[in-house]
Amino acid sequence: MQFSAKIFIIGINPYVLLPAPVLKEIFIQAGKDKGHIPVHLTINDQKFIQHLVKYSGKWRLYLNTPMRKIAGATVGDTISIDIAYDAGERITPMHPKLKTALSKNKIANDIFISLPPSRKKEIMRYINNLKTAESVDRNVKKAIDFLLGKERFIGRNDP
User: Fold this and answer.
1) Model confidence band, residue 90 (pLDDT cutoffs 50, 70, 90)
2) Is 152 in contact with 146 (CB distance < 8 Å)?
3) In what order do the strands lie in the sheet with 13-17?
4) Rounded to two decimals, what is the model's pTM?
5) Is residue 91 part of a domain?
6) In a domain, 27, yes or no
7) CA gap 88, 138 in Å, rounded
8) Per-residue burial over 55-71, b = 16 or more CB atoms within 10 Å of its CB, e = otherwise
9) 118 near 36, Cβ under 8 Å?
10) Contact, 77 vs 67, CB < 8 A?
11) Which tens digits make up the pLDDT trace of 44-88?
């Protein structure tokens, strides 16, 4: 389904609102109209995966920096988007160094296992997106210390 929408911003987060018929069709495809709804979309022939999120009473499609750069657009501009429900499973892999560190520290591993899925994903994504082996090593250590309550990590004081 293709539509055009103006880019708005709430706080620091740019987003678009979907037209009611597009949103209704995605709800039908997803079989739900609550919670995060995974979608895949295309902007200027570039494919992305994202979630529709209901916030402050409106369903929003947040547009991260790479999406806006591809679209060559900023807040206030109107862009064209092709969107559909994404039924595929989304798995965030665990970095091997994080997996090894958790296997060596039962307490940190137990705490990690007890975290909500979103927090686990946040930690894994952060480490997966690091560029150098040194920063992975440094941040895996920080993640373990964070889980043990010894250090601040991913902008948080507590796991």
Assistant:
1) confident
2) yes
3) 2-6, 78-85, 37-43, 46-55, 58-62, 13-17, 8-10
4) 0.66
5) no
6) yes
7) 33
8) eeeebbbebeeebbebb
9) no
10) no
11) 888 999 999 999 999 999 999 888 998 889 999 999 999 999 998
- Total number of domains constituting the chain: 2
Q: What share of the chain is helix, strand, coil (3-state, %, to 5)?
A: 40, 30, 35
The residue type of 89 is E
Distance CA 117, CA 56 (A): 23
Asked, for residue 21, whether it belongs to a domain, the answer is yes
> What is the reported pLDDT for 115?
95
The vertex-22 CA angle with 17 and 25, nearest 5°, equals 135
In whole numbers, what is the pLDDT of the chain averaged over residues? 94
> Would you say residue 136 has pLDDT above 90?
yes
Q: Determine the pLDDT at residue 159.
A: 86
Statement to judge: residues 126 and 75 lie in one domain: no
3-state SS assignment for residue 87: coil
Tens of pLDDT, residues 10-43: 999 999 999 999 999 999 999 999 999 999 999 9
Tokens of 148: 């043990």
- Alpha helices, DSSP H only, in the chain? 20-30, 65-71, 96-103, 106-114, 117-128, 133-147
